[in-house]
Amino acid sequence: MSNKFILYEDFITYNNLEMLTRSREFAEYLKRRRTVRDFSSEPVDIEIVKNCIKAAASAPSGANKQPWHFVLVKDNEIKHRIRITAEKEEAEFYSSRAPEEWLEALEPFGTNPQKPFLEEAPYLIVIFEQKYGFDEKGNKIKNYYVKESVGIAVGMLITALHYSGLATLTHTPSPMNFLNSILNRPENEKPFLILVVGKPAEGVKVPDIDKKKFEEVCTVL
Known about the structure:
Structural class: alpha+beta
Largest sheet: 4 strands, antiparallel
Order of helices and strands: HHEHHHEEEHEHEH
Radius of gyration: 20 Å
Shape: globular
Distance between the termini: 41 Å
CATH topology: NADH Oxidase
CATH architecture: 3-Layer(aba) Sandwich
């Protein structure tokens, strides 16, 4: 069977000066993104978040299998259930599961088992990775480069939300399989992370940290 190709007419070209300007401005814009742990309860138009998920769902993926599913949680009772169960897992993590080295690495960020942001923020986006899919007859279909594909999509989602004026926090309680039960997701899906979404609380503070220099993260050959 031959592949069907269509003409790529949506690509926008710029002259070199425009490209340099756009790349510089975008880099500076993204450098202003910060993770926050205190969220305002101020409502956010759900269409904004839906548009950002649409952007994330346009991400490249292995063999275009698109092995992801996004659950957008706005219901307060569901958020409460997620918080209660996540805090139970986090309490065990901090008290017995986490190695001392990990706890020392987390210390500058002031994290602890309490996760009020899971209820305070207007939205949680729970991203699932699909270990395999199904065809129209219900037969299993192998997905390729699942974690890489979902990771790219999540990066695009965080970027889209920041571009739209919203703050985010990535949260990965361990283990996360309780999310399948609470959100009624099938066994072929595995929780990848919880993305907390909303506006920062008034007067919110963030850790005073630096990013590595360009020369430390990139080698040009």
